[in-house]
Amino acid sequence: xxxxxxxxxxxxxxGQDIRALRKNRGLTLxxxxxxxxxxxxxLSEVERGERTVSIKFLRTIAxxxxxxxGWFFTHEGQPQNEVGLIVRAQNRKRIGSREDGLFExxxxxxxxxxxxxxxxxxxxxxxxxxxxxxxxxxxGYLVEGELDLVIDDVEFSLKTGDxxxxxxxxxxxxxxxxxxxxxLWVTSPPVY
Length: 192
Hints:
With 192 residues, the chain is of the alpha+beta class.
């Protein structure tokens, strides 16, 4: 076995994920430490991979950063030479639940780049929770299904193969189709 195939230290990966999420949400170490009920020094050591954290602490961090606990376990068993470069389908980080009708998977290797890619599945009858505004540029490609999209009060009906851009605008969506809508989203800068 070569050095590049060795498994990377999970404490480092968890710390890197926490740091990336914190920065993408515009939180300082101090603010996240307060939310998580720990010291700034402890959180800094966690982010640098110098501390092993408990599941209880990860639950608190996950809640503070609004991600599922499983977000921090997708690197398990990943060869070091793939970290930050490759995402295997079975190791995608998931957000949302099928019960809510919206299920998203991060298909970018991590949140440290200048953009992120998500695969979103929207069940029939599901709609956004009101109007959404994110101070980012995002584009989407409808891989399958149909989607009704409203961007700055202009309505669009999209079909499989259509794409769109939302540039720092208010938007909402509804899947009025009979099948799930599957969308590949690219967002810059990352928001998750």
